[in-house]
Amino acid sequence: MASRTRSASKASVYKINILFLHESNPRFNVCALKDQPIIDFESDVLFQDIAPRIKLFIQEQFSVNVDQNTMEVFIPTEILPFKNVKNWGKANIDAEELTDMNQVYGADSIHGELDLENIGMRNVDLVVRGEALAVEDNDTVAELPTFGPYKRFMDMHKQTKLTPSRAAMSKERAASQRNRNTAIFDGSFAPSNDDDGPVVETAAQPIEIFFTPFGELKAALADPHFVPDPDCLRAAADLMTKIGVVSVEAKYAAKIREALKQLIGRYIAEIKTSEGRSANGLVSTIIDKVLVPLLLIELKRSLGEGGCDPCAQAEYSVFNRWSEPELKDLRYKCPCPTLILSGGGPNLALLGAVWTDRFIVQRLSDMVFMAQQSTSTDDQIYQIARFFGASRNFMAKLSEYYDETTSNTNIPSLEPNTPHPRFFPQPIQFICRESEQTVRFKYLKAMADEDPQNLTYLVETIGEVVPRKLIVKFSDRYGSGAHEFMANQGLAPKLYYCGLLDGKTDVKHSEEARGSIRGDVGGLYTGPLRMIIMEYLDGITPAELPELEWPKNAREGVKAAMKCLHDGGFIFGDLRQPNVVFVGEDVKLIDFDWSGKEGEVFFPPGLSANVYWGGGKSFEEIKKEHDLAMMKTAFDITA
Questions:
Q1: What is the tally of structural domains in the chain?
Q2: pLDDT digits (tens, 9 = 90+) for 194-206
Q3: Residues 6+ apart with CB under 8 A from 418
């Protein structure tokens, strides 16, 4: 089954190639409106709904504030390839009626007018024209656009809250997961009308990039050398004798809550929201007389009792708790990391939640059976003690985090049109390979803002005389050796750091940070998530530029770059047009996620069926022949 990641056969976003027919675009450049949510095609989204996006896009690309009342949108009736755009534009720039065009109107639906399978190729998808607002109108109308993450955060914030037990029911949950304003990004999804993938893609970024101790907790839960405290071992042995009880829910919850209190080492309260909804237990820290959630507990006597998944019910309980008015100040400062303990009967699991611009919940552990089932108990006691001992350590860090966040006066206020730290990953510094100095930075934007799986960000350095823009990306597998080799040849952006999220444990000096590829099982990666920081290239990809406007030496540059990489003993793996950048006349490669030494790299899961991978398949070794075949397909270059 294909993985629902960025490379899955059905993407979660699409792009539209737009020709702005206006005097401010004298070269008739076609620009791509990227990262549009695929739900536009799965629901009744109208052109009037995306008109503000198009207006803002034109303003950003051409510095023209189009009067939306005069904006007209057209779809070519015949294919209009990039190479023919200039001639067509010159012939129609002053025309009253556009040739070979159908006008679309605000009430027309996206999916009724555009063909998802064919847009975003090397043809014009939409032609837009309209009058620019006068200067005096610009002064009053051209307000700063609402920052995308802020809007998504507020849209979800406004949603009517259901009781968690009702929201977790199949019917209500399916309706919620169909709407991007209400969906919880936990991997469960409502199928599209053709049952081919999700209406809303709910596989999201790893939560540890927003609160790094989540990654530490996952590592501790799998660490065979983790050493629990003796009191944790005793409490684990005690829990084993009690959690297998079959009882009515109220008595069950109270009985287990007492045993869990010894394991967790903190008071567990049953708490109700302002609307009377409750979970089985809440572990909090008190800050300014407010109970700040650290751990929410949702337990059933058995899995499936009550007709809903207790983990799903717990997710809604956390969301409702963080929506409380008393938590507004803290909610507006940070992404609200919270631990969840949920399950049915003796089956318990740990989950983690963050509320960035989306509400994301991910499993941190498998469902663990905790009742005594054998006379041989030592291994089980250790597993339970590690489970809760690691959770104890995590909650200590989480409590400290909320203390520091509350008292931090440097966190800016949350504004509609300004990037805010709560929407971005937690790491904000690294030790630079080049200078061996600590470099601090702030996030400016996600490179694919509408994509819930975006892992690449544009940042700007802090504390330097002349601030620099950098690219920060997060990835598990990454060919840092190939990247560095090509950067040294001037054929890739400079690589400043590749390592753990702490910003100081670089793969160049740490075995722990390197991870490994398991060639015996299809090249699956095992190891930590890494942060990669590199030079920002002020350039353009071939995919964004008509072929006639490529640098004259573009093909020779791509061919030379691949020869250099192969001569160095490396494989690239993903040679598509978006992974090549033209910087002036120079050609550089980017995106070395699949790169590495020949014989050591494999195609990842979830390869798109709509892309030619040179004959390669998921879990197969990537060979030089695949690179050459993709080079031929993407650039019409023969080695």
A1: 4
A2: 666 788 899 999 9
A3: 144, 147, 412
